[in-house]
Amino acid sequence: MVLALAPHEPQPVPITRENIFDTPMTPFEEWLFSLARQNPARFRQLVTEWVDMCPAFDGPEDGADVVPPGCLTPIPIPEYWKIPVHLEPGGFGNPKVVRLSQVSKAQWTFTREENVREWLSRLYGDAPPRRFLDIGTGTGTTAIVCAELFPETEVIGIDLSAPYIRFAREWAKRRGLTNVQFYQQNAQQTVFPDASFDAVHFTYVLHEMPVEDARKILRELYRLTTPGGRLSMFDGLYPDTEEERQRKAQFSKITGIEPYLGEYMKLNVEKAIAETGFTEVTRHFAVPDGMVVSARKPAA
Ligand SMILES: C[S@@+](CC[C@H](N)C(=O)[O-])C[C@H]1O[C@@H](n2cnc3c(N)ncnc32)[C@H](O)[C@@H]1O
């Protein structure tokens, strides 16, 4: 397939299963992202065609290759997740959408490796966790950075998307990591036993779902945390004023880029974390596209 581009527009570099891990965002991809706001109709058309040209991280339909050992397949998928976010063609389950997600991370504060590294060091550097769970791991950035930063920590990344899990596994292998594993799991109801992790974490996850689904995840994270263990999040900013929350909810309605942002504006995530039972809920840092919050499960 050839994209309908004018000669003066940036031409795409073909992305393959081999070069996908090392090819930074290309000028074509940068230009494509800029179209999302300038010319949404053309963006939708081109992004669909572009994604179709990218390599597929596919596998058995029931996800048998990506679930934890002994887990029944297929795992139940919540309804909200079937609606595509970020205008990604086919949503997070499309085996070819991996490249688009991987390169779009250059655009957000806490998907950039240097920021993830800095904040994981600040939060956990004094006492690295024994077992760290990253839910909604996507293409695996937070889990991979954590595994590199803390070589003695056993890191597990989970996501609903089987293609992302396949990508993340291959990426971790190429980076020579042996202390990180990735599985397809629903963070609302995992197969892991109670108190399996002394640190649980998510990066940009709870703003992608209705309020009640986000609360289910927080309850599951509480169950999975050891007494005295820690929770951390790098997720969307919950603004302090109702006016700003309304503005963000309105943006979500108009653009469709973040269909659930209006829901997140109703969640009040720090309050929701405290309501789940975590204590010491602390906001450490905030920028327009995100914030760093940590909390602790009371010791038994
Ligand atoms: C915006 S992406 C963030 C990915 C990654 N944490 C990062 O920062 O690059 C949100 C991710 O959450 C995942 N997700 C949403 N709901 C989930 C659930 N209930 N269980 C596991 N993963 C979920 C999505 O599939 C998607 O990969």
How would you sum up this structure in a few lines?
It contains ten helices and seven strands.
Please explain how this structure is put together.
With 300 residues, this protein is α/β, with parallel strands linked by helices. It has a single domain (15-300), classed as 3-Layer(aba) Sandwich (Rossmann fold). The chain contains 10 helices and 7 strands. Strands 3-2-1-4-5-7-6 form a 7-stranded mixed beta sheet, sandwiched between helices. The longest helix is centred in the N-terminal third of the chain and has 14 residues, at 40-53. S-adenosylmethionine is lined by residues 78, 81, 92, 105, 111, 135-139, 141-142, 158-161, 164, 186-188, 203-205, 208-209, 217.
Query: How many domain units?
Result: 1
What is the CATH C level class, in words? Alpha Beta
Q: Overall mean pLDDT score?
A: 95
Task: Tell me the distance between the termini.
Answer: 60 Å
Q: What's the alpha carbon Rg, rounded to whole Å?
A: 19 Å
Descriptive terms for the model:
Rossmann fold, globular, 300 residues, binds S-adenosylmethionine, seven-stranded mixed β-sheet, alpha/beta, single chain
Please describe the topology of this protein.
Layout: H1 27-38, H2 40-53, H3 98-104, H4 113-124, E1 131-135, H5 141-149, E2 154-159, H6 162-174, E3 180-184, E4 197-203, H7 211-224, E5 225-235, H8 242-255, H9 261-267, H10 269-276, E6 279-287, E7 290-296
Parallel strand pairs: 1-2, 1-4, 2-3, 4-5
Antiparallel strand pairs: 5-7, 6-7
Helix pairs in contact: 1-2, 4-5, 8-9
Bound molecules: S-adenosylmethionine.
S-adenosylmethionine binds next to helix 5 and strand 2.
